[in-house]
């Protein structure tokens, strides 16, 4: 799944786009230029923070799009009644730190139980 974009042959384009965002990030971080007092460790730390924020933005957007595809209702796994999908925020630990993600949740009034439609976040 993660490679669907890659399978379409645009991996190079996506990575080039991310590098371009890196240039923009660097320009915004040092609008007056980078003086000799800035050492490589500081540059690396800034890049690390930027990469983490970029990763969080990408993952959050992908999860959001996946969640939207669920629709407004999901069938109860027990009685199969249509139940309204509600959203809550959930902190999810990733390789690059915790990310707040939208998580779908349903409540079946007939069965009086909550259930969580399957998404990438519910499987994490
Ligand atoms: Zn039910």
Q: Pick out the low-confidence regions.
A: none
Number of strands: 4
* Count of distinct structural domains: 1
Number of H/I helices: 3
The pLDDT mean sits at: 86
Secondary-structure element string: HHHEEEE
Q: Helical percent range?
A: 40-55%
Ligands present: zinc ion
Instruction: Profile the largest sheet.
Output: 4 strands, antiparallel
What is the terminal-to-terminal distance? 15 Å
What structural class do helix, strand and pairing data support?
alpha+beta
Radius of gyration: 20 Å
Strand order of the largest sheet: 1-2-3-4
Percent of residues in beta strands: 25-35%
Shape assignment: elongated
Describe this structure in words.
There is one protein chain. This protein has 124 residues and is an alpha+beta fold. The chain has one domain (10-115). Helix content is 42%, strand content 25%. A 4-stranded antiparallel sheet has the order 1-2-3-4. Helix 2 packs across helix 3. The radius of gyration is 20 Å and the shape is elongated. The mean pLDDT is 86.
